[in-house]
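Objective 1.3, modelling of assemblies. Example input:
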Amino acid sequence: MNSTLISSIKKDYLNKLAEQKKRIDGRAFDEYRKISIETNIVRKAEGSARVKIGNTQVLAGVKMDVGEPYSDSPESGVLTTSAELIPMASPDFEAGPPREDAIELARVVDRGIRESEVIDLDKLCIEPGEKVWIVFVDIHVLDYDGNLFDASSLAALAALSTAMVPAERFEMGKDYPLPIKEPPISCTFVKFNKAIVVDPCLDEETIAEARLTVATDEEGNIRAMQKGLSGSFTLDEVKKVIKASIDNGARIRKILEDAVGRDHGKKN
Amino acid sequence: MNSTLISSIKKDYLNKLAEQKKRIDGRAFDEYRKISIETNIVRKAEGSARVKIGNTQVLAGVKMDVGEPYSDSPESGVLTTSAELIPMASPDFEAGPPREDAIELARVVDRGIRESEVIDLDKLCIEPGEKVWIVFVDIHVLDYDGNLFDASSLAALAALSTAMVPAERFEMGKDYPLPIKEPPISCTFVKFNKAIVVDPCLDEETIAEARLTVATDEEGNIRAMQKGLSGSFTLDEVKKVIKASIDNGARIRKILEDAVGRDHGKKN
Amino acid sequence: MNSTLISSIKKDYLNKLAEQKKRIDGRAFDEYRKISIETNIVRKAEGSARVKIGNTQVLAGVKMDVGEPYSDSPESGVLTTSAELIPMASPDFEAGPPREDAIELARVVDRGIRESEVIDLDKLCIEPGEKVWIVFVDIHVLDYDGNLFDASSLAALAALSTAMVPAERFEMGKDYPLPIKEPPISCTFVKFNKAIVVDPCLDEETIAEARLTVATDEEGNIRAMQKGLSGSFTLDEVKKVIKASIDNGARIRKILEDAVGRDHGKKN
Amino acid sequence: MKSDIKLIDKEGKRLDGRKRDELRPIKIEVGPLYRADGSCYIEWGGNKILAAVYGPREALPRHIQHPLRAVVNARYNMASFSVEDRKRPGPDRRSTEISKVISEALEYVILTEQFPRAMIDINIEVLDAEAGTRCAGLTAAAVALADAGIPMRDIPVACAAGKIDGQVVLDLGKEEDNFGEADLPVAIAPRTDEIILLQMDGHLTVKEFDEAIELAIKGAHVVSELQKKALLAKYAVAKEVKQ
Amino acid sequence: MKSDIKLIDKEGKRLDGRKRDELRPIKIEVGPLYRADGSCYIEWGGNKILAAVYGPREALPRHIQHPLRAVVNARYNMASFSVEDRKRPGPDRRSTEISKVISEALEYVILTEQFPRAMIDINIEVLDAEAGTRCAGLTAAAVALADAGIPMRDIPVACAAGKIDGQVVLDLGKEEDNFGEADLPVAIAPRTDEIILLQMDGHLTVKEFDEAIELAIKGAHVVSELQKKALLAKYAVAKEVKQ
Amino acid sequence: MKSDIKLIDKEGKRLDGRKRDELRPIKIEVGPLYRADGSCYIEWGGNKILAAVYGPREALPRHIQHPLRAVVNARYNMASFSVEDRKRPGPDRRSTEISKVISEALEYVILTEQFPRAMIDINIEVLDAEAGTRCAGLTAAAVALADAGIPMRDIPVACAAGKIDGQVVLDLGKEEDNFGEADLPVAIAPRTDEIILLQMDGHLTVKEFDEAIELAIKGAHVVSELQKKALLAKYAVAKEVKQ
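Predicted structure (C-alpha cells):
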C-alpha cells in the first residue's frame, strides 16, 4: 500500500512536469543521457564492454566454444544470448532463474543481433554439420537506472565488435576478429501523460504507460521493433518514434564506432 | 474454510442422493456418460485424438523421433508418456511442473499402453543398440469434469491407433501406420457413502472416498488396476467393479474401433 | 518467537554448564562420543558403511559407473560426492534439492577425499580420454544428533575402503578392491561461551558460535580445514584445535582400521 | 532470411494462392469449453488455438494482488505436439515473451480498476501451429474475455503484415515467415486504432513500414468483424433459447 | 515380460527355493532411530528399508492445513545406491506415484480427525532394493506410526501376489518381478480385510485374480503377525525397564 | 597437485616475479555503483570484482526474519564470462559454499542486533577471475558495507597463504593455485586478529601451517591499510565537496 502511495505521488509529479515539457532530471523530451563505452575490460572473455547510460551500467561479455550446429542450419555458427538482472543492480532484482523481464530483454537483444545478421554466422562453421563456433553473449546488468534495452544492446554490440575468435585455445591457428557487420542501433522511448520521451530513467520507466524500442541501421531502415507495457500508441506516435530513432541511432553509432575503434561497415 | 463448508454441503447432498440410488446428473450408478472420439485433429502430430466424456475433454497427441534405445532393451523402441493438467482445464489447475496428480495419471496411462504391449516396440527398432523410434504420447487435458483416467487413456489409444510412423521426414521410406495391438480399455469407478458409481463426474470425484480403475482386454482378462484415494474397498466390491469394467470395456471398445475405423486386433 | 525463546533458555543453560567445565550429556570438553562403524550393509552398493557417533547415524554408499573423464584430466577417474539431509533424520530437514548446509557438507567430505588423494584416481583410467571409472559417494544422513561432518566423512572413508570395483558388471574381468590410500581423519570442534568442545551434539551445535573441522593424516599433518558459523577463533585456539585433532584422529583411525579390517597405508 | 524460393509468382499470387492483401481462412467458435468462465476456439490458416478465461477472482498468492486493479495474466503455451519437432512441455523463453506482450496488450482494454485485488487468467493453448500464433492467440483470447463477460473498453484484435520477395503483404504463412524479409505483428483496439502490441523483425524501409502497418491494421479490422459475428451468433442463439 | 527363464522348477520350487505360497524372510525392528517420533527397520528378502514418523505437529506452510483433520504425507525415497545402476537423488515419477498411493492407504487407518490443522510425515527410505519395496515400505511405515503412538483404527500391512510361469504365487522376488506375467501389490486393514492399496500390472484372468488377491491377503496376515510381534517385543522390553 | 612446473626459481622469485611474502597488485575503488547503498570495486591481481550492499531493510519473505537481529546474506556469483570455459549462469555448489562462509564471516563484524527483523544483502560479482576470488570478494564486500554505513565492530579483510614447491608463500596466483601443494584462505577482524574465515586444502605440516597463517594474517593487515586508504580517499573528497 505504501509503495503504491509513493509511486502515485511520483506519478503525479512526473506527469505535471511533463505538461510543462520538463523531465525529472532536467532533460528535454528528446535528450539522451551521456553514453560511455569501455571495451576489453574482462581478460577472460573473448570480448567485453561496459556501457554507461547516465547511471545505468551494463557489462556484456562474449565467450566462444566449439560445438554442434543446429540440425536445420548445419553450416552456421550458433548464437546464444542471456541476460541476468542480478540483485546487485537494483533493490528490486532477486537472485534466481531469469524472470520474464530478463527474458524479454535477452530476446530483444538477441533479435537485434540475429535478425540483422550482425555476426556472420556462416563464417563460424568449422566442419559442416559437425563443428561450429558457439557464441555466448551474456548481459550482466550492474546498475539499473532505466533503459536496459538500449544499454544492453549497445554493450552486446561493443563486446562483439571487439571480440577475438579464440582459435588458439582450440588449436585451430591464430586468434582472429569475430566477423561482424554494421549493427543496427536500438533507441527506446516511453510514453506517459501524452508525453513521449527518449532514453527513460528509472523514475520514468516506473510510471510509463507504454514503451517502444526501434532498431535502425546505417541507411535509416528499420531492423527491429518492440512495444511494451500496457499502454497504447497511435500510428502517428509510432511514426514520430521511428524518425527520432533514426536520428539518435546515427549519433549513437558514432559513439560505438569511436569506442571500438574501427569502421565495421567497411572493414569486414 | 468457505470451500470446506461448500464441499461439506455438496457432500451431504450427493450422499443423500446416493441413498436414493440417484446421482447429481441424473445418471444410474452403472451409467457411463456419452463418449465421443475425433481423430487426426492436429496436423503437426503423427497421430492425435480428442475424447469427450460428458463435459470432460482430453486431447492426446503422438509425436515420434529417432533416438537411442535403452541399454537394457537395445532392440526396442521407446515409449514416453506425459500428462499436463493445464490451467485451461480447471480453475484449480496451476501452471508449472506436473504435480503428483498429473504424474499418477501419466503413469497409469503409460502402464496401460506399455504393460499390455499396445505398441509393438520391437517393430520400432531401426538399428539394434543404435537407433530406434521414440514414441511420445502427450496428454493435454482441456476441460475437466471428472474421470481423467478413462478419458486420457482412451485419447492416447485413439491417437496411437491412427498414428503414422513419419519415416519420410527422417528419409527412411514412406510413412506407415504405427504397429498397434488390441488395447485394453480402462474403466473407472468411485465409492462414496457405500455407493459405487461408474465414470464419476467432477462433483462425485470431489467427495469420493475411494477410486478404482480396471483395464480389461477383449477376452475379458485384467491388464491393469489402480486404486486411489484414502478410502477402502471390500474384496466383494473389487470383484463387482472388475465385472462391470469388463462389460463397459466391451462397449467402449466398439466406440473406439468405430472412431479409428478399423479392427486392430486382426489387421495388425 | 517461541523457538527463539526456547533456544535462548537452552543457550543460557549450556553456557552455564560450560563455565563449570560441563557438557549437557555429561562428557568432558575433549571427550568424543562412542563411534561404531558397520561396513558392507547395502548389497546393491559397491561399498557401504553405517557410522554412528552417539545418536547420530550416517549411511554412505559407493556406486561406480563407466563414463568419460574430464577434459582437463583425461587419465583420471572421476569422483562425485553428494549429501542428502533427508527429512527422516530430523524434524527440521525438508525434502527437496540440497540446501547450503548439505552442499557445504558434501563439499567438505569431497575435499577430504579428493585433496588428500584417498582414492587413487589415476588407477581408475580405463582408456585415456575415453573411458574412466566414475565413483559416486552418496551420504545419507539417517539420524541427526550433531557432528555430521565427522560422521559423514568417516562413513565415506569406510565405504570407500571396503568398496569393490564392479569390473564384472561391465565385462572387464573380475571385481577388485578400489585402490585406496591412507585417509585423513576429520575432527570437529565448536566454540560457545569461550569453551571449545570436541564432537558437538545437536544441542551444542544449535548454540555454537563457531565451528572448526580439521582433517589430519597418519603423520600428524594437516590435510583440510573448514571453519564455519559466525563466530571467531583466536590463532591460539586454532592451534589447540589442530593439536586435539591430531590426537583424536589417531584414535579414530584405529576404529576405522578395525572396522574395515586391513591396514590401508601399507597394502595399497 | 535469404532463399531461392519464389514466394510470389508472376501473377502476384502467393504460394497458397492468396493475393497480397488477403487473409488466410479464419474460423471462430465461442464457448467450446465447459469449465472456463469464457472460451474461444480459433482456426486461422493452419493454426488451431484454444483460449480460456478464468476470473475475475481473488488474486492468489496474496503478494501478487494490486490494491487498485485486477492483474491480468495471459499464458501462451504450445502443446508439445503442435510443431514439427516435439516441443518439451512447459514454458520456454519464446512463450514467456509472447505471454508478456499479450498480457500487456489485453490489460489495456480490460477495465481492471473495477476489480481491485482480483486476477484474470487467460490461457492460450496452441494445439496446431503455423505462422502467426501470437496474433491468432490474442484474437481468440479477446473473444474468450468477451464470452466471460469481462468488461472491456474494446474487443482487441491482432493481425500481421510482412515483406516477402520485396513486397509488403498481409498475414504471412509458414514459408513466408521462414523465408520472408520482415514480419510485423500488430494488435489494436479497433474502435480507435490504438496500437497495443507491436513487434518487428527483419528489414523494412520507413516507407515499407508505413505501408505494412496500414495493411496490418486493415486486416485486423476484417478479423474484428469475424470476432463480432461469432459473438453475435452465440448471443443470438442464447437469446432465442431464452424466448 | 517374456523370457526363457524357468521361474518354477518341476518340483514346484521357485528360483530361491520358496514354495508357491511362501514369503521371503522378514525381519522387523522397532525404534532404531533417535530423532524420529517413531521408526522401524525392515528387511524383507533383499529389501532393507527404514521408516520414520514425525508428528502430529502443526502443518506448515499454513496453506496445506486442513481445518478438520491432519494431513498425511508419506514420502517414499530410494537411496541412490540402493539399485544396480545408481539412481539420481531426489524424487522421480515412480517414487512420486508410490508416495501418493502409500499416503492415501495410510490416511485411511489414521484417526486424522483427532488432529485438525496438523501434519503427520512418514519418511520411507529404501536403502537396498529388491522387488516389493512398496509393500515392505508401507508395512514398515505402519509399524513406525504405531511406534510414534499415532492413533490408528488398525495397523495396516501389505503383501503382493503375482503370476509366474502361468502360476499364481506369493511375494515376487526380483527375477519373478522382471520376468513374471503379473504383479499385484495389496495393502489391507487386517482386522476387516478392507483393501486400502491395490495396483496391478500384467495379465490375469478373473479367476487368477481371485486366486492372487486371496493369496496376497493371506500373506498380509502373516506379515501382520510379524508386525505385532516386533511391537510387542519393544513394548515388553519397555515395560520391563519400567518395572 | 603434482606437476613438473617450477613455481619458484633459483633466486626465490615466483612465476610472476613476486617474492615469497609479496601480494599481487591491489586496487580498491569505493562507491562505483549508483543504486546500491554501498559498493566497492576491487582489482586484485587478475581478479576484477564488484561488491554491492543493500540494507538494512525489512527482511522478506517474513519467515526469514529474526526477531532479535538482522540476517546477513552474502551472495558470491561468478559472471559466466569470468572464467576460461564459460560458466553456466546461476549458483553452483562451489559458489553456494563460498556465499555461506563469507556470510558467516561478515555477520561476525556487523552489529546485527541493532536491526531486528531486517536483512542486509551483500552481492559479490566476480567479473574476471584468477585465484583468490573469495578473499578478494570478502575484502571488497567489507568496503561496500562500510560505504553503506552499516555499523561494524571492525572492517574485516582476507588474504590467503599457501605452499608451492615446498615453500610457504603469500597470496597464490593462478598457476600456484593449480599446481601448488596447499591453499589457506583466511579472513580476520584486523583490530583483534580474530579469525572469521578459515579454510585449507592440501598438505601442511603443523609447522608450515603456523608459518602460513601468520603470513596470511600479515598480508591481511597490508590489505586492510588499502581498504582504509580507499575509504578515506572517498571520505576526504566528500568532505572537500561539502566545504
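The CA atoms of residues 116 and 223 of chain B lie 6 Å apart.
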